[in-house]
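Note on ligand handling. Small-molecule inputs were canonicalized before submission; formal charges were left as drawn, and no protonation-state enumeration was performed. Where a ligand contained multiple stereocentres, the stereochemistry in the source SMILES was retained. For fe (ii) ion, this procedure yielded the string shown in the input block below.
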Amino acid sequence: MSSINYAEKIPNNVNLVTDRNLQRALEHWQPKFLDWWHVMGPTDFEKADVYLRTAISVDAQGWAHYGAVKMPDYRWGIFLADAVPDRKIGFGDQMGQPVWQQVPGEYRSTLRRLIVTQGDTEPASVEQQRMLGHTCPSMYDLRNLFQINVEEGRHLWAMVYLLHAYFGRDGREEAEELLERHSGDTNKPRILTTFNEPMTDWLSLFCFTYFTDRDGKYQLKSFAESAFDPLSRTCRFMLTEEAHHMFVGETGISRVVKRTLEVMKELGTDDPAKIRAHGAIDLQTVQKYLNFWCSSSLDLFGSEISSNSAANFASGMKGRPDEATYQDHVLRDVQMKIATPQGEETVPMLNALNEVMRESYLKDCEIGLKRWNRMIERAGHALRLTLPSSRFRRSIGPWAGATVDPSGAPVDKATYDKKLGEWIPSEGDRAFVHSLMQKVIEPGKMAAWIAPPERGINNLAIDYEYVKLH
Ligand SMILES: [Fe+2]
Ligand SMILES: [Fe+2]
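Structure output:
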């Protein structure tokens, strides 16, 4: 079951050959995907041989194969985690009943919307990152960028498979539209705001993969609990790939902080201007980027109080990440207190699940912060990096538009407007970070603003030629 058939046009472990119509529909979509990749994927690196991992099995051991591949030749395929025999619904009003192998009619449009929204983020991130290859800080980083890009492409395949296989004609139309919306496009933008934010520098990429891919992890974990079994199995396998994306973010920011601390020591200063003059990124600027991407990603969880979250949970469509770790899986008699600018509101727990998810996400985000702050502390500096309050700079929910500072304290509008440029990157900060973005491509060499990684990919040396440019 778990081995993947590579002899077919579309590698898969879903027995695609046994469903001719589905196979034909997906083979029809495949060239459109490749057209999209050529136009919207990483620019100018199509001929390069990139040291990439490709999924070859869904086993915990050895699920991927590493080797040099030209990105357009990457074997994007459809891989589902193995079925859990006799799996039962683990939460909501239908808890204990068998999971669904088909979409129940009454949930069809909601499930389709959830899958489309998830699917839309995958190609969106490839589009956002398409220019970054030209300014990579090292060949190692360039390879990691491309690894993430091809896997986000595969995640699009994962969602398109579900749309084609379970949602008939509507699903096929949605699959087409996933290639027609584009990140930042004025007429046909991507669905979610964060995925329309321009990304022109690698500090943003590291923050994006730290915060936004981690939102992805939480969404996938909540779908992994779904009563719709094909969605659950699809997302369980996607999580395997997702871990690397967050690794790139966490180690990327670590390496920036490490390099900055080296420069501070070398110069014997914590003056941001001097650190910048030496070609490193001062910690205050790192903090602003964290504030920007964290607050943007917090909106992705939706409103604090939401009847959709209640319906999605009660029906079994979308659970909480790590549902099994909770005591109560039905939540009909529990409430939660939610802070709003107007005061505390007590709401049914079912309506507060976005906030429950957001809170567990923020806890997960803290792990990297602790690591970076330990480095700063060991270097003898008092500054600490922090996560912004979940009330800061929100566009969705009761705190949308509220003028609060990054600690969550209310400030008046004039102060907010004046200080925002001190809390998130100003034009000047962006221009400075941008000025550092020069392509470093000699194997093993690093740009001056980032420390080398601790180790290479798949036990190879840091100076391995991860991308062979021709
Ligand atoms: Fe993804
Ligand atoms: Fe990802």
